[in-house]
């Protein structure tokens, strides 16, 4: 199924704009998992099973798997999601960016090896670095635009406009996506919850393009401001990501139940603002 | 050993500015390797052994390994280089870029799991996305600046200067690195051979910062123009990368010998211009 079709169905059927980020850090796992050889998979699987009916998407962050030689556990996790929760699309958070011939390899990694439904991509190298992902057609390609971290302003907030017409770099990225790269309707954009005014600006520039919004929860972004700035006319259009606040809500054997409670509260808090 | 110390020693002792890029594509391998389970490792190992005395660095591109579930072969390859050619530093071409907590995981992947001496990093997310790599101190951090691909101009060539003072985005990246991020002297920059005037500009902005220059060979960049634009006072300062032209110089069982001939010709062509 096309990523956008799956995402829209998940928004509606689950009544949720919540994206559950899967950033598994074994140092933060409950003690009973610590010595298990497949701890990363088991931890994420239990989180997934406890939150799947509350989520419009899952977003595993590949660095947490790669740092621990656990690509096989990432494969198993995505396979588990497709098998047991087929209505929830998987966004591989990889933020790749390279020349076309190399981007083709990264696209194989994301879409064929890991079987992700969408991938995050860095726009710094421009159009031909994005095309190999777009070429898959039914996969989502979510471009970094305005990121939620402090250093995000170093480049993204620079004025690249013609004389007398201010345009920030992140606005140019949004415009490139809306006017050129999204010709097949499979693009999204990453805009941090820490910058609601910029979420509103990106929404204004991009029409109905889905926005992946990290930065609520541990990073301190405001839910109400995010929803008001980023929702589309039908009250959707957003994948509001929470990772650490959900994953590490509990420290005991009931960690998945604790995660579910936070996920439910977060989904409801989002829905209260739609 | 500090990456910069190793790189300077390799430039001098090997009399070479040639970086051999390792982008192993099994579809282009000699027929006798095709069915071997460790073909990627064996192909790269033979290229490495045939060219190590001609190279100032090796640059494996991780996407080619990741697309084929061959991270174990990448580990074995880097281990092989460290064991048999310890004087040649290894640059992991990964172009990572993420928030600080995720960048810490990518740094573990590159420097602890794969034991690379340096990594390529994307600057789009700004300073805190680069700091976890810089924190290793003895490792090299090579930031994308002006890339060799056609889409490189989409963002990198935008004017971000104050009114009346043109400054391209790639120039701002070079300046950020030279003035801020390189405080510990472990940064480098990627500048494509397809843009000699911009190599010269980056050299002007960054003093002695080493430049990793892709784009000669298959991508058509000019060696003489690259060397003249980018060399430092002592005739070094450059890691001029060639991947495909060396790797796929031969198609038979003597592919490594063919690769060596092209590597030697390329090194000599570079040296003739220093």
From TrEMBL, chains A, B:
One of its GO terms (molecular function) is orotidine-5'-phosphate decarboxylase activity. Keywords: Decarboxylase, Lyase, Pyrimidine biosynthesis. Residues 17-259 form the Orotidine 5'-phosphate decarboxylase domain. Gene3D superfamilies: Aldolase class I. Its EC number is 4.1.1.23. The active site is at 95 (proton donor). CDD domains: OMP_decarboxylase_like. It catalyses: orotidine 5'-phosphate + H(+) = UMP + CO2. It is an enzyme of class 4 (lyase). One of its GO terms (biological process) is 'de novo' pyrimidine nucleobase biosynthetic process. Pathway: Pyrimidine metabolism; UMP biosynthesis via de novo pathway; UMP from orotate: step 2/2. Belongs to the OMP decarboxylase family. Type 2 subfamily. NCBIfam families: pyrF_sub2. This is Orotidine 5'-phosphate decarboxylase. It comes from Pseudothauera lacus. The gene is pyrF.
